[in-house]
Design a protein that fits this description.
The two termini are 34 Å apart. The protein is globular, with a radius of gyration of 17 Å. The strands form four sheets. Strands 5-4-1-13-14 form a five-stranded mixed beta sheet, covered by helices on one side. It has a five-stranded mixed beta sheet with strand order 6-7-10-12-11, with no helix packed on it. The protein has a two-stranded antiparallel ribbon with strand order 2-3. It contains six helices and 14 strands. A hairpin with a 2-residue loop joins strand 2 and strand 3. By secondary structure, it is an alpha/beta fold.
Length: 248
């Protein structure tokens, strides 16, 4: 097995297509297929903030659910959109409002298609992926070594939101512990969720959310080769959205 794990896309459809091409995929019947049968894996947060969330949903649904040539794990933004589609009273903020605006611009028939596609994609997705063939675990916001194999509520919160403390900082962002510093496992933990300017490797963890929607780049991590491939973003750069970590 050879895989390419894609960081948070957030509606950046053009950059996603460019990254597929950079990785050697060929576009066949509106799917991206690698001549060596590499498997794309999406690490969640497909939508929100970016310009073309609906196109990302449609492509990922087709590749993951319909044709089964890719894999996907959900992120917190995916969870929020799913709850919106369920009819829950979800606040349209932090990017959801851009996806909802795109969705509401569609005609009723297309809205039904997109809603059904996304809900099926989300409902059929594992909370995280264990891939012993490439010695890796794929989880949106990461996962502690002791949580691997568990699916309880505590693990779900961690996988979707990270190691949150329940507190917020002066800018209103949730305070998260730097769990990667304490990871001692032998599997790669490949995750996103927290935008960083460059892929961050700590112990055997790698954060590949390089903030495409905030104007930086979209990144994939290739296994078993352990190669990093990125393409530049087409979005305006917003430096304040990136987290810097103190040296351990």
């Amino acid at each position: 097995m050879k895989v390419d794990v894609f960081g948070d896309i957030h509606g950046c459809f053009k950059e996603l297509c460019t990254l597929f091409e950079e990785l050697g995929y060929e576009k066949i019947n509106d799917l991206y297929i690698h001549p060596q049968n590499r498997i794309p894996i999406f690490v969640g947060d497909l939508t929100d903030r970016g310009p073309e969330s609906i196109k990302v949903i449609q492509l990922v649904y087709k590749m993951v659910v319909k044709e089964k040539v890719a894999k996907y794990v959900p992120g917190n933004h995916c969870n929020k959109l799913y709850r919106f589609f369920l009819g829950n009273n979800v606040k349209q903020q932090h990017g959801l409002e851009t996806t909802v605006a795109e969705f509401e611009a569609l005609d009723n028939k297309m809205q039904g298609h997109v809603r059904n596609q996304f809900m099926r994609l989300y409902e059929e997705a594992p909370l995280y992926l264990q891939l012993p063939e490439v010695n890796a675990v794929i989880a949106h916001a990461g996962i502690k070594q002791s949580y691997i194999g568990r699916l309880d509520k505590k693990v779900k919160t961690f996988v979707l939101y990270g190691d949150i403390t329940g507190e917020i900082d002066e800018s209103g962002k949730p305070i998260r512990r730097d769990w990667a510093q304490h990871y001692r496992g032998n599997n790669w933990i490949v995750y996103g969720h927290t935008p960083v300017l460059n892929p961050r490797i700590v112990n055997k963890t790698i954060n590949i959310d390089t903030g495409c929607v905030f104007g930086n780049k979209l990144t994939a991590f290739r296994l078993p080769e352990e190669n990093i491939v990125s393409v530049p973003s087409l979005q305006p750069f917003n430096e304040e959205k990136f987290r810097s970590f103190p040296d351990a």
